[in-house]
Design brief:
- Helices cover 42% and strands 16% of the residues.
- It is an alpha/beta fold.
- The chain is elongated.
- Helix 4 crosses helix 5 (143-160) and helix 8 crosses helix 9 (237-244).
- The strands form three sheets. A five-stranded antiparallel β-sheet has the order 1-2-7-8-9, covered by helices on one side.
Amino acid sequence: MNAGPTASPSERGAALLAVLAMVVLLAGFATAGLSRLKAAGDRISSAQAQAEAQLLASTGVTMAVSIISRLKAQSRNNLAVIQEPLTFDLPGGKVTARFRDGGNCFNLNSLARPPATTSTGETPAAARPQDFARLLTASGIPMMEATSISRATANRLAQTGQLWADPTEWAAIPGVTAQHWALAGPLLCALPSRETAALNINSLTPDKAPLLAAMGLGADEARRAIAARPAAGWSSASDFMGSSGSRTEEAGGAAEQLGTSTRWMTLAIEVKTAKIRIARDLLIDTLEQPAAVVSSRWRAVEEAS
């Protein structure tokens, strides 16, 4: 009986190569599958760490906001009380909370007119373009540029009819440059209100003197008065006006826009766990009882080198 055909050496070599190629291909598929599985696992782990850190942040916000009224009361005579960072050691990580005065700024939304109604008709905005122009001039912007920019800002707010959510929207106004933002940007805010922000004379710093210039006070006099603030703070706006060398009637009723406390507070929350660091910035309305969070955003945290 004859044996079947025998494969030639070349045919056997080709078959071996085919088998090896299949093995390599399957190994590649396996490696790719393991990589995707690992990546999916990493994403799940990262998402879980993020969720846990955000939960800690929410807990920190609740704890900080619950004591803000007490801190504000104590800070009337000692500003450092509310500026001291609060640390909460919670299961799973550490939360640091820092309050800052969020109302010592020019509220750009105060340049926006309230919507007209059948009963009130057209009503003026709380702040005038010339008020804003005085601030811009006091911050170092040439008067002609300040006047043009302030009118353009008021016009833009009138055209859209919407409140701005962030002061950086001002940078899109025609004529506003990076230099303008560097000079005036730190003085601006976009509060969720068309009202002017009442300035807290006990937390104003000399670099915020242009805010008083917007009210008609002399910037130099305002700086001197701020620098001469009593250790326990001023008990009234009238005391401050006397220190600035200005009389209320000469300052166009500026005393009505000054106070010894703050409605708007900012709260910066930072969370550090074994796996992640995150931060959250909030704006708090302390006029509400209890105090209410009116805006919030998450931000990245730079890792220490």
